[in-house]
Task: inverse folding
C-alpha cells in the first residue's frame, strides 16, 4: 500500500525540520556566549536540505528530505571592549557570536510550521488508510 | 452479468490515482524548504484516461512511432507553475499544496464511499434483506 510511502516522506521531513529546530535552539542558546579569539567564537549554524528520491520506476515521484550538512554562517564575528571579563584577550576585547536572533526566530517559526504541516499530512494519510481498512463493513 | 473487475466501476482506478496524488502532494509539502525542489502534481484527467480500459489507444505499429497506449501515472506527472517562485529555486507554495492535499483526501473518501455503497448493494442483492 503506497500510503506507507507518505509516512516515510513526511517522517524524513519531520526529522529534517527537527534538525533545523535543534540548530536554531543551539544558535539562540549561544547568542550571548563570548570567546577570547575570533576563531573560537560561536558561529551560527544552519542545516542544508536536499531532496532524496525514494525508489525507482513507479514510485520515483516521491522524495523525502535529507540533511546534507550543517553550514556555518560566514558573517563577521562581533567584538566588544570588556576588560573586566575573564574571557577578554590581552587588549581587553571579547568576541561575540554572529548569531542574529531575528533570523533565528524566523527560522524557528518556519521550521515549526513545516513540522506541523508534515504531522497533518501523516494524520490524513493514517485516517485514509483506516477508512480503507473498514471498506465493506 | 458484470465482470468482477467492473463491479466498482472507475472507482478502483480512481482510488489508486488519488493515493498516488496524495503521495506526490506529501512529497511537495515535505520539501517545502528544500532548495531547488520543484513542486509536482498529477494531471488527473490524463492519468485516469490512461488507467481506464475501453478508451482506444492509438496504434504504434513501428518502433519509431510514439506509443500512446498505457502511459503510467508517472508520465502524467507535471511540474507546477509557481505563483511565487523563491530565490532558492523552490517552487512549493505550502497553501496550494495543503488545499490540494485536503481536496485529494475528500475525493479519496468519496471514491471509498462509492465502493462501500456498491458493496452494500451487492450484499442486499445476495441476502435479500
Result:
Amino acid at each position: 500500500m503506497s500510503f506507507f510511502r507518505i509516512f516515510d516522506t513526511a517522517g524524513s521531513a519531520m526529522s529534517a525540520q527537527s534538525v533545523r529546530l535543534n540548530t536554531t535552539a543551539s544558535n539562540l542558546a549561544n547568542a550571548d556566549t563570548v570567546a577570547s579569539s575570533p576563531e573560537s567564537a560561536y558561529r551560527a549554524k544552519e542545516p542544508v536540505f536536499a531532496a532524496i528520491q525514494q525508489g525507482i520506476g513507479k514510485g520515483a515521484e516521491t522524495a523525502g528530505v535529507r540533511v546534507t550538512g550543517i553550514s556555518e554562517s560566514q558573517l563577521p564575528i562581533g567584538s566588544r571592549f570588556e576588560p573586566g571579563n575573564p574571557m577578554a584577550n590581552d587588549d581587553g576585547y571579547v568576541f561575540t557570536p554572529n548569531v542574529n536572533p531575528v533570523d533565528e526566530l524566523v527560522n524557528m517559526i518556519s521550521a515549526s510550521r513545516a513540522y506541523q504541516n508534515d504531522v497533518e499530512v501523516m494524520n490524513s494519510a493514517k485516517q485514509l488508510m483506516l477508512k480503507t481498512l473498514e471498506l465493506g463493513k | 452479468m458484470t465482470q468482477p473487475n467492473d463491479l466498482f466501476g472507475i472507482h478502483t482506478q480512481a482510488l489508486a490515482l488519488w493515493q498516488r496524488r496524495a503521495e506526490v502532494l506529501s512529497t511537495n509539502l515535505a520539501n517545502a524548504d528544500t532548495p531547488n525542489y520543484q513542486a509536482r502534481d498529477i494531471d488527473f484527467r490524463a492519468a485516469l484516461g490512461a488507467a481506464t480500459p475501453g478508451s482506444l489507444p492509438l496504434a504504434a505499429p513501428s518502433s519509431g512511432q510514439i506509443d500512446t497506449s498505457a502511459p503510467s501515472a508517472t508520465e502524467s506527472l507535471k511540474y507546477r507553475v509557481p505563483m511565487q517562485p523563491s530565490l532558492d529555486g523552490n517552487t512549493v507554495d505550502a497553501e496550494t499544496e495543503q488545499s490540494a492535499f485536503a481536496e485529494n483526501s475528500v475525493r479519496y473518501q468519496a471514491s471509498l464511499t462509492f465502493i462501500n455503497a456498491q458493496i452494500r448493494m451487492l450484499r442486499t442483492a445476495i441476502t435479500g434483506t
Observations:
- Helices of chain A lie at 3-29, 101-133.
- The CA atoms of residues 10 and 121 of chain A lie 7 Å apart.
